[in-house]
Amino acid sequence: MKLVTVAGTRPEIIKLADLIPMLNKYNHSVLYTGQHYSPNMKDIFFDELNLKPDYDLKCNTSEIEPLRIEILKTLRVIDPSCVIVYGDTSSSLAAALAAKEIGSKLIHIEAGVRDFDMAVPEEGIRIQIDSMADYLLCPSAFCQTVLSYENTVGKIFLTGNLIVDVCMRLCEIATKQFHDRSIDLPNEYLLLTIHRPENSDDPVKLEMLRKHLEKIKYKVIFPIHPRTKNNLEKYNIKLPSNVTSLEPTSYLQFLYLLKNCKLVLTDSGGVQEEAVVLRKPCITLRHTSARWETILLKANILFPLDRTDSLSDVVESMIPAKINRNPYGKNVAKATMKIIEKTVINDV
Ligand code: UDP
After folding, report:
1. Together in a domain, 198 and 335
2. Catalytic-residue membership of 195
């Protein structure tokens, strides 16, 4: 059986890091589309996680149609019996469409994730991939329940979230690696990431972010996504003096920052998951979230940037949060392999 895993962005490289070596025991190839292509959004992660794509398409786009055309050309050459896609990126949808076109089986990892808001661009992508997938691997019981309410045709499994294995394993290494290094970090700080178009592309929201941050009494460490950096410059918005911005960090550096912060402010899906795994309180700077498990556990709370009440007060109320449950399971790469070995290989 020939297997192909398709990835195209930073979070996919990270989340697939422990599964790919296990899949490599089989006739397996990794196809990287190049949706994220700058060295600090791509190469740094392949290097640090010790991975290498077998096919690097260098598409440099997030447009679905050109991605689909390029992926299709390569899939026709490889002729896999099963294609694995992760999450809700344009690359994943393009790969799912291409997989169906060549008559391959499709595994969707991170199935059943929902924002419950069709205005969120990823929502349509997730629903479309879930409707095409033959095997839907859910990261949480919540996502499995969501799929049980939809007319899902494929086989549904609960595996847990692959981020748990990667995050736990690398957090230990990050702690050791940076332990003796004099990173110039304040004793107490909040960690901030912002990259979603609904926040980063809107000058009004960016200005509100600046005003909210200014009133927070903590230092804020802000690894800044290229899109957000460009827009802050474009709209001439200067971050307040309690905010230290950094280039996007490597994964180990990011985990070190997360492990040692008091709380994380983010609009990233992956960071909401990592926060609960590492037991860090999280404030999601959005009006909705696709990580409802973390909100139900009170480890995460929504605060869209256009709210006019005090973010600082919400920070103070969240810092003492006791997070004692991880909704995303453990040994997830092994659980995923078990399903591939027991069910998928038998079916194809
Ligand atoms: N991340 C990182 N360096 C950074 C910011 C984030 O390594 O400077 C990691 C983070 O730990 C998480 C992933 O990137 O695993 C999240 O990616 P992103 O926020 O781009 O995407 P999303 O999860 O929202 O799809």
Report:
1. no
2. yes
